Amino acid sequence: MYKQPMYKVEVKAYLCSIETFVNEIPCFSYFDEPQIATDTPINNLIFNSGKQKLRFKITPLFNNEKLNKKTKIEINVFVKESDDFYLKKQVIKSYVNKEPLGELQWFEDELNFEATIPYNLDNSFINYSFINDEKDKLLSEVYNQYEILTNFINKQDVNNYNDLTEIRFNAFVKAHYLDASKQNYYLNKSLNSFKDYNLTLVPKIDYTLKFCYENKLVYLQKIKNAPGLILEDLSSGDEQLHFTESAVFFKDKNGKLKLFR
Fold it and tell me: With 0-12 CB in 10 A as exposed, 13-18 as middle and 19+ as buried, what is 97?
């Protein structure tokens, strides 16, 4: 039994793009690179102990219509003690494609796994469904929230940025077992990675409206990019420097968009 279990999803993908979702919330994505091997913490997407769902989707690289006949995918869900870097991880669920995927335009599957955590992350306030909302209007409303975040980032307005992202940060604190000193450290450093850049939000026309969590969460995604806020430094040359930050919203009982993850 782990005192402070840290759950992660390990992705190894060859000759494909990949997106993963934990409990139907975007977790990790990687596009148009020949191969990737990485792991991503998922505790902030596990709300309670019990059965969890990991879904993944792979698509062809670049503009190819079908997956490569040599496409390979391996996914492992593992757990380890959060504060012990050297402790051996325990793999609790795995997937490896056994059949060739080369004739498919895309491939999707899911894994169910059990998690035991010593905390609960409240999601009882996520009740509103966006299913009947007018989509163009909603896209503009979410984009407006992205503009507000961008403004706080460029002005290095830490207080307002932390207020807007409070729910996401509090979940991070619980899920990563942070004490008070570490909480303060992260709060004070929340915008440090954006310093010394003049960042611009990608245009609204580049975004597509996306839903998850039974249409109760909404976000924007630029094609073949990680979902959420994409900020570009337009002065950085041909290969423009850019930052991506998760920005997934729910609507509260007063009809206001609030950042969740």
Answer: middle
